[in-house]
Design a protein that fits this description.
10 strands, ferrous iron transmembrane transporter activity, 723 residues, two-stranded antiparallel sheet, Rossmann fold, 2 domains, Gate_dom, G_FEOB_dom, transmembrane, GTP binding, 8-stranded mixed sheet, alpha/beta
Length: 723
């Protein structure tokens, strides 16, 4: 989360005056080699760079000269500083949120107003820093200078720094060029290729093993917005090592760098990186040289710099950038294959039809019907029933019973196999037999839509409709992502341009979008009921999305931005890569969700055994029954829902014989519109702030209770029972 730029009054603080570019053209006559006695070199510089804290949220963190933040009073050796570096919108902030523990501070460098978030790493020593986007080591843009100069700051302890370079898989060549530039620092590096699913959707295939071999560093792959690959990345941080492949420059530059290596031996940062920055007139590099080697050395080096600049045919930064781009292109050509754009006139025409109202709406409705048949009928009915009957009932239930029956403790037997509260029936089997097959089908369907290029065209089609709810067509991205995971959907609201749009999208996602696991079990339950139940539940979701969005657009202040999107070509997706990616996403989801299912089941089992569930049902039962017409067993459904949505709806499926069809519909409405799981709530407060987060949470809770009560009473008054 990037901090806003400091106000003008911060520029006046001591040590924050913008330093003058220091080269011989800006120095007084007689300096650097003339007959006149020069002034002390330090007189031409602001104070040496200081590490300023602009905000601190964890008072146990402190900054010392040569150590990362740690408990006050410790004198530990420098712990690793993992600096996230990469272009704009490549997923650095998502990775920062995933890698860092609670307690984050924001720091600035002298002369640069851009703040850099820094936090402790989770479950290991060290810190992680989230730098602004950077496209070139030699840029003069202030944000990009912060990303470059952070490695020269003395308080960061350069000798303990590690570079985690984050790449967008769709723009690999640009990332490789950055790798080659930052390789000159000589610091250990790790390359993280993010958004690999989006690259696959555009027909880009990358040989990551060969890429690692070409660069000589470890390459990790992630889908940061969904948390896929993040744990593996955290475990591989220790594998960071210096890049083995370096660029060979022109003869005059190589001679300069070789001479500099003799004059200024490496001290954390290699002299090659320092020399390249000095050649491009970087003031931070000049200050670093002054601080480390003294004014005499700086004077000598600046004279050498002038000689190299004078002898070159073009500006040094342009010459260097051209060489990096050429080398990056050679590497990219060896490690990636890009599917050529389609030449099919039918596909091109179909892409145009998808964006036109007269043809786009029927196409969208047709695709929606296909999705319902594939996910609802095939996944939620055929696959779920097949797994339950042919695998669980036929093999696993009898096998587990045979293993557990000899256990002498009846308590342990009930804890494991009790049909109402046991870990296996309500935890393991519901996750694997009910949620997993449907979410796998969802990811396959979503992958085909993404790979074909249809989702972007859907954004264009819905732009006019979304204007009514204060968004533009780009709002389709977080809303569709909400049908996958509400937590990640809130994170993807960052793609929206204004705070108004981000607040509206977060509110709508939090209010009425069922995540994939909830949608999966919902489809299983509704498939066994009359079609009127499905029309009611899905109709309420759609209508309340529009109504709540329209009201939010009127109430929430701010402006809506215009829609600007890159439109990929329409193409026929390749089934096997889509299925592999869906399997990978499903695996990571189950890997994360299964322990939570088990913990939720164990918690409810123990809560029931000590009498807590009965007491809670007795206390809340009359209110729930009177206001919403629900039985007392709904309490345990809501308890599991608070832990994780899909766990609660799976419990509803487990107890479906206790509820009438009307009560099931009311329960589904409540679980859809009530606040999502704890993870989503935490992310909401982190992204939107305490005030907006609390307001959204309270509004959503009251809205859900009111809507559930209205559905119950209206259906009872009109005699609708969904039977």
């Amino acid at each position: 989360m990037r901090s806003p730029r400091m106000q003008d009054h911060r520029k006046k603080e001591k040590g924050f005056d913008k330093p003058r570019r220091l080269d011989n053209t800006a120095l007084p006559r007689g300096y650097a080699g003339s007959g006149r006695s020069p002034k002390p070199i330090s007189s031409f510089f602001p104070k040496p760079p200081e590490f300023k804290k602009t905000k601190q949220r964890d008072q146990t963190m402190t900054t010392s000269k040569n150590s990362a933040p740690g408990p006050v009073g410790t004198n530990a050796t420098p712990s690793p500083n993992y600096v996230l570096i990469g272009g704009m919108k490549v997923g650095k902030s998502s990775l920062f949120d995933s890698l860092s523990a609670s307690g984050m501070e924001e720091i600035t460098l002298a002369g640069i107003m851009t703040a850099i978030p820094r936090g402790r790493l989770k479950n290991r020593p060290g810190t992680v820093l989230d730098t602004p986007g950077i496209y070139s080591l030699f840029s003069t843009n202030e944000d990009e200078r912060a990303s470059r100069d952070i490695l020269l700051a003395p308080d960061i302890a350069p000798e303990a720094s590690r570079i985690v370079l984050v790449a967008d898989a769709k723009n690999l060549k640009r990332a490789i060029a950055l790798v080659l530039q930052f390789a000159e620092y000589g610091l250990p590096m790790l390359l993280v290729v993010n958004m690999i699913d989006e690259a696959a959707s555009r027909g880009i295939e990358i040989d990551y093993a060969r890429l690692s071999e070409q660069l000589g560093i470890h390459v990790a792959t992630t889908i940061a917005r969904e948390g896929i690959g993040v744990r593996e990345l955290a475990r591989s941080l220790d594998e960071a090592r210096p890049v083995s492949r370096r660029v060979t420059y022109s003869e005059r530059i190589e001679q300069f760098l070789a001479l500099l290596g003799k004059l200024m031996p490496s001290d954390g940062i290699e002299s090659r990186a320092l020399g390249l920055l000095l050649l491009t007139g970087d003031t931070a590099a000049e200050r670093y040289t002054l601080d480390k080697f003294g004014p005499g050395m700086l004077s000598q080096v600046l004279q050498l710099v002038q000689d190299v600049r004078r002898d070159g045919p073009i500006a040094v930064d342009i010459e260097l950038s051209n060489q990096y781009q050429a080398e990056a292109a050679r590497i990219a050509e060896q490690v990636q294959k890009v599917e050529p754009p389609t030449k099919s006139s039918l596909l091109l025409s179909f892409g145009d039809w998808c964006t036109q109202f007269s043809t786009g709406v029927p196409i969208a409705l047709g695709i929606l019907a296909i999705l319902y048949v594939f996910i609802g009928s095939f996944g939620a009915t055929f696959l779920v029933d097949t797994i339950h009957d042919d695998l669980f009932e036929a093999w696993l239930f009898p096998g587990l019973a045979a293993i557990i029956d000899p256990i002498p403790s009846a308590f342990i037997q009930d804890m494991l196999l009790d049909p109402d509260f046991g870990i296996f029936p309500t935890g393991v089997f519901l996750a694997l037999g009910l949620v997993m097959p449907v979410i796998f089908c969802f990811y396959i369907a979503f992958g085909f839509l993404q790979d074909s290029g249809y989702l972007v065209r859907l954004s264009i089609l819905l732009d006019r409709l979304f204007r009514l709810i204060g968004l533009n067509g780009k709002g389709v991205i977080p809303l569709i992502m909400g049908f996958s995971c509400v937590t990640m959907s809130i994170l993807t609201t960052r793609v929206l341009s204004t705070n108004k749009e981000k607040n509206i999208a977060s509110f709508l996602v939090f209010l009425c979008l069922p995540c994939a696991p909830l949608l999966a079990v919902m489809m299983v339950i509704l498939a066994r009921m009359p079609i009127s139940a499905s029309i009611t539940v899905y109709g309420l979701i759609f209508s309340q999305l529009l109504l709540a969005g329209w009201l939010a657009a009127k109430v929430i202040p701010g402006k809506r931005s215009q829609l600007i999107l890159e439109i990929p070509v329409m193409r026929l997706p390749k089934p096997w890569p889509v299925i592999k990616m869906a399997a990978r996403k499903t695996y990571f989801f189950i890997k994360e969700a299964l322990p939570i299912f088990i913990i939720a089941s164990l918690f409810v089992f123990l809560f029931q055994r000590v009498g807590g569930l009965s007491a809670l049902e007795a206390a809340l039962g009359p209110v729930i029954n009177t206001v919403m017409g629900l039985p007392e067993q709904s309490v345990q459904v809501f308890i599991k829902t608070m832990i994780r949505r899909e766990s609660g709806v799976a419990e509803l499926e487990h107890l479906s014989t206790v509820f009438t069809n009307l009560q099931i519909v009311v329960n589904l409405v409540l679980m859809t519109f009530l606040a999502p799981c704890i993870n989503a709530t935490i992310v909401l407060f982190k992204e939107r702030g305490a005030r907006a987060g609390a307001l959204i949470l309270v509004t959503v809770t009251l809205y859900a209770i009111l809507l559930g009560s209205l559905v119950n009473h209206i259906c009872r008054l009109t005699g609708i029972t969904f039977t």
